[in-house]
Design goal:
Blueprint: E1 3-5, H1 11-16, E2 23-28, H2 42-60, E3 65-67, H3 90-106, E4 111-116, H4 121-136, E5 142-143, H5 158-162, H6 169-178, H7 185-190, H8 198-203, H9 209-212, H10 227-249
């Protein structure tokens, strides 16, 4: 089954898709600081790559996907002190997502999938609240694989699991694979590793990148990033998204291989 991009269609083409009951996929990113070497739209680039990879997997499972324009204006308080960051109130983001769900439900979409790559705790909480509200209105099923939690997080890279993964090897690799033209490589290769863990900082109550030990808005090892790792990670993110969708649609959650989804 094909994948469509909403922004490229006419309204009559979307109306004609009703018979296929497409899955709506919303890439969710941010506009925020990602060190001196990665663009402000890094999370959106990752989210769109995740959405595209997930849609390919879902095509193989016989599902039509409708990829929505990315949502990049979100809550980003950890990066709010850096120029270029756009930070919305978390409640605004939750309300916006519910409105999006109301729209795609009217078009006859069978479910909404969130391909989220922005991991600020305030933002992730806003997505969780939105999912609860959408389900309370019985609009349509929502698949939200929260990669900050098990089982999804365990399938990502060692740096990701360390928590030192903002604009480091993990994110830098994906941008090198998806949009290498936007990486400031001279700056990237000159940056020393920053092993400070954002996960630990969040548990300790820190509320900004600066407080967490990232005065230049990066954590991890930017110089170690590679396009090869990025391509592999994009495929993993696509598998995660597709499996979350199938688990949401099916009575018995399974992986793409037909095996039970791990708890």
């Amino acid at each position: 089954m094909p994948t469509y991009r909403l922004a490229e269609l006419t309204w009559t083409e979307v109306e004609a898709l009703r018979v296929e009951r497409p899955l709506a996929i919303l890439p969710v990113g941010a506009v925020e600081a990602h060190g001196p070497h990665l663009p402000l739209g890094t999370d959106g680039i990752i989210a769109e790559a995740m959405a595209a990879a997930g849609a390919r997997r879902l095509e193989e499972a016989g599902l039509t996907s409708l990829v929505l324009p990315p949502l990049d204006f979100v809550a980003a308080p950890f990066a709010a002190g850096f120029s270029g960051t756009i930070c919305l109130e978390a409640e605004t983001v939750s309300s916006l997502l519910v409105d999006v769900a109301r729209s795609v439900a009217r078009w006859g979409c069978r479910a909404l999938a969130l391909a989220n790559a922005h991991l600020d705790p305030a933002h992730v909480a806003s997505l969780r609240r939105a999912v609860v509200a959408i389900e309370a209105e019985e609009l349509l099923p929502v698949a939200f694989p929260d990669i900050t939690r098990k089982p999804w997080a365990l399938r990502l890279t060692e740096e990701f699991l360390s928590g030192a993964c903002h604009a480091g090897q993990y994110e830098g690799s994906i941008v090198l694979a998806a949009r290498p033209d936007l990486v400031r490589d001279e700056a990237r290769l000159s940056l020393p590793p920053n092993p400070a863990s954002l996960s630990v900082a969040i548990r300790e109550g820190k509320r900004s990148f600066a407080e967490a030990g990232g005065p230049e808005a990066y954590f991890g090892d930017p110089a170690a990033a590679s396009a090869a790792e990025g391509l592999s990670t994009i495929e993993t993110l696509g598998e995660i998204l597709a499996e979350a969708v199938l688990a949401t649609l099916a009575e018995e959650p399974t992986t793409l291989d037909g095996n039970p989804l791990p708890a």
